[in-house]
Amino acid sequence: MKKDFDRVLISKEQIAARVKELAATLDRDYAGKKPLFICILKGSVMFFADLLREMTIDCEMDFMSISSYGGASKSSGEVQLIKDLDHSISGKDVVIVEDIIDSGNTLSYLKRLLLSRDPASVKIITLLDKPERRTVNLSSDYVGFVIEDEFVVGYGLDYDQAYRTEKEIYVLSRSVYEK
Ligand code: PRP
Fold first, then answer.
1. Whose CA is nearest to atom 3 of ligand 1?
2. Is 0.90 surpassed by the pTM of this model?
3. pLDDT (tens digit, 9 = 90+) per residue, 125-167?
4. In the chain, is it the N or the C terminus that has fewer CB atoms within a 10 Å radius of its CB?
């Protein structure tokens, strides 16, 4: 393990097992439909790919890029739309795929935006949820793991763009972001 990390929080085996369970739940809940999964770049890219690979029903995918953090380790509360969807979501069953919900600002903004576009439904799935940090009233329909308020990286999650390609989810050492 790299010296930048305190410990493994969620192993790759735990991630894979939970992703399988979530995919099976979504397969059941969306049976007979063709949901549109929206990947919120860049943090959710690993989760998105693994989740959709495990699903057996027909799905569509699109990508959106939103930023609320910039280079900072805490949300500024401002949300910026960097890349919009390529296609209309009118009449579609939309599932927003996130890596983590922290303050809830990003998803609260995004859910409002997507609901204004006349979809059949909008649900949220997040791999990680940090309910302690919530500043807005926002809950996820599907959650992989509820975690404590610790700085986590790996499996798509970054600190200043680093560590996204790590296979496990680690707690980042304080010395890395407090220097
Ligand atoms: C992260 C994460 C969520 C958001 C959650 O994105 O992917 O989108 O922050 O925080 P919030 O609940 O406080 O709004 P980030 O802006 O770091 O971009 P990234 O996915 O490219 O890492």
1. 100
2. yes
3. 999 999 999 999 999 999 999 999 999 999 999 999 999 999 9
4. C
